[in-house]
Design a protein that fits this description.
With about 260 residues, the protein is α/β, with parallel strands linked by helices. About 40% of the residues lie in helices and about 20% in strands. The protein is globular.
Length: about 260
């Protein structure tokens, strides 16, 4: 799987940090505080957003290993982390689940990852986590909800088309898309984990116009690929949504869900 553009990751980071469910973060912090040497493995780390979001909430003495397949994103993550003896980086293809370095890991973390993954990927990861006895914190998985104000008659249809595209192969087999959190919870509960989930939707307004603009721009190709509608129909809807961003009272909700699974 290829990496994401670092500028897009930087743009969404503020929204991600504002919407993570802090109840799950506090529960994770309590779990790690009971350990002498907590160690966190962050998979699909991108530019290190999960580390930056959690480091002030989790034990400061915890060690971190950040994995990503994209060397440019790893380089950016390392640059932004600065000199920190508790944080290391490694390139890794997540398709090789068996080679994940789980020895000594207390919890695996990931953000905005599992909606891109398949049922088989989640099952295989759950097997590895159960065998290693480590937990999972999986945040910001897209849950299929997109709502805007003001409304447009095609909003629901466009959401359905995008959700259809989200279930296509993103590099890890047929993607789960909106079903990711439920699938993860099913596999982890079956292996004896205690699983808690919480909603973490983006709630965007005029202050996040740049993120909304980039997000809508990124919808065009998936919508074209998933639809038999004329291109002009999709473009007209996108033009309406883009023009609405700057209007008084306009808002956008993009649904996500967080999950925390701890060994039973």
């Amino acid at each position: 799987m290829s990496g994401f553009d670092k500028d897009w990751l930087a743009l969404r980071e503020t929204a991600d940090q504002a919407t993570r469910d802090m109840g799950l973060v506090e529960e994770l912090a309590t779990y790690l505080q009971g350990m002498d040497r907590p160690f966190i493995l962050d998979i699909g780390c991108g530019t290190g957003s999960t580390l930056r979001s959690l480091k002030d909430h989790l034990p400061r003495y915890a060690g971190w290993l950040l994995l990503d397949y994209d060397p440019l994103l790893l380089e950016e993550a390392s640059r932004r982390a600065g000199t920190n003896a508790h944080v290391t980086f490694r390139q890794h293809d997540l398709n090789d689940i068996n080679a994940l370095p789980l020895e000594g890991v207390s919890v695996v973390t990931a953000s905005a990852l599992f909606d891109l993954c398949s049922d088989g990927f989640c099952a295989a990861l759950a097997d590895r986590l159960a065998a290693a006895g480590c937990g999972l914190y999986a945040a910001l998985n897209y849950d299929g909800v997109m709502r805007w104000s003001p409304e447009h008659p095609l909003d629901g249809q466009m959401t359905d088309l995008f959700n259809r595209h989200q279930r296509t192969d993103k590099g890890f087999g047929p993607a789960l898309g909106p079903d990711a959190t439920a699938c993860l919870a099913k596999h982890l509960k079956a292996r004896g984990f205690t699983v808690t989930t919480a909603e973490s939707p983006w709630r965007l307004d005029q202050s996040s116009a740049a993120l909304q603009t980039e997000f809508l721009g990124g919808l065009r190709q998936p919508l074209l690929e998933a639809s038999e509608l004329p291109d002009t129909t999709i473009d007209n809807w996108l033009d309406f949504r883009l023009a609405a961003i700057g209007t008084p009272g306009a808002s956008c909700l993009i649904g996500h869900c967080d999950l925390l699974a701890l060994p039973g």
